[in-house]
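Changelog-linked ticket: alpha-D-galactopyranose example.
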Amino acid sequence: MFAKCFGRRPRWTAAAPGRVNLIGEHTDYNDGFVLPMAIERYTTVAGDRNTKREVTLHSVTTGETASFSVRSKVQRGEPSWSNYVRGVVAGFQERGLKISGFDAVIDSTVPFGGGVSSSAALEVATATLLESIADEKLDPIEKALLCQRAEHQFAGVPCGIMDQFTSVLAQPDHALLLDCRSRTATPVSMTDPAITVLIINSNVRHKLVDGVYASRRNQCESAARILKVAALRDATLESLSDARDKMDAVVFRRARHVITENERTLEVARLIQSANWPKVGELMYASHTSLRDDYQVSCRELDTIVEIAQSMGEREGIVGCRMTGAGFGGCAVSLVRTEAVKVVARKIGESYENKTGSMPTIFSTRPAGGARMIFQGKSVS
Ligand code: GLA
C-alpha cells in the first residue's frame, strides 16, 4: 500500500497491539491496579522520511489521506483519526526531538471503537516509528506517557495509563499486573493450556462514552477529596462507609466500585498464578456487576453477553466473563476452557443474535508482546 501511495518502498514498519483488560476497570486513573494483556491484533504504521517538512498519512481503514506541517508545533486538525498521530508528533517536538517530514500508511486489525484500545495502538505504533525517524529511543514508560498525553490533548479523553502502557510494555504469554501509581508492572503468566481468552465484541458503541468517562473521573476525584486521600487507591471500604454521610449517594457508589475493584484485581492476579480458575471467574462476574450497578458504565448489550456466559457457566466451559474497557459498548472478555472454545463461541453468538438482533464478533487471543519495529529496510538516501 505504501508503494502505491508514495511510489517507493517504506523504510520502516512499526506495529503496536491493542489490549484486553482481564480485570481492574476504571481503576487506573485512581492510582490503582489493572491486569491487562496485549492481544494479537495490531496497528501498523509503515513510513519513510520525505524531503518536505510535511507529514502525509494514509489510512487503509478509512481510505482517507491527511497532511500537516511540522515546521511549527503540530496542532489538532482533521480528519479526527489524524489527531492520534498529530498528538504523538507534537509530543516528540515538545521533547525537543527533531521530526522531519514523513509519509506513512496506517493499517489495523484492532477493532475500532471496541474497547480494546485501537487508539493507544495507533499512538504507540506512531511513537515507535518516530523513534526511528528521530533516531532516538525513548524510555518505555516515558513513551507510554507521551502517548497518553496525546490522547488527553489531541483526542480530548482524560484516560489513565493502562492502554498505552500495555501496548508498549506487554510481554508474550503474560498479563501485566500494573500498579498505576508506581508504574511498575509484574508479569503474570497466562500459559495454562486449559484456558483460552475469548473476546466478544458487541459491535455497539454508544455515543455517551467520552463525556461519561470524564464525569466518572471527576466523581472519583471528589470522593478522594472528601476522604482526604491522594487517590481512591488509598481508601478502604471502612473509611468509605465512615464518610457515607458526607457524600452524595452516586459518588459513594463510584468510590465503592473502585475500592472493591482494586481488591479483586490483586486477588485475581494471585489466583491466576495458582490456576484457581473458578474463583477467578467469580471475581470477573463480581467486577461486571460492580461496573453495571455501582459505576454504571455497562449497557444492555454487554449485560446480555455476560448473562449468556453466566447462564452457560462452568458446565459448558465458561470460567468467567465481564465487560472490558471504558464501557457503553465494545467488548466483553471471557476465560473459557480451551476444549470448549469453538462450541462456546458459536452458542454465545447465536444466543446474542436471538436476544439483540445483531451479530457479535468473537475471537480468541493469546497474550501478545508490546510494540516493535517489524520491518527495517536499508537507507536509500
Ligand atoms: C479506557 C482508558 C483507560 C481505562 C479504561 C477503563 O480504556 O483509556 O485508561 O481507564 O478505559 O478501565
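Closing comment: Example verified and attached. The mean pLDDT is 96. Residues 21, 25-26, 28-29, 159-160, 162-163, 325-326 surround alpha-D-galactopyranose (CB under 6 Å).
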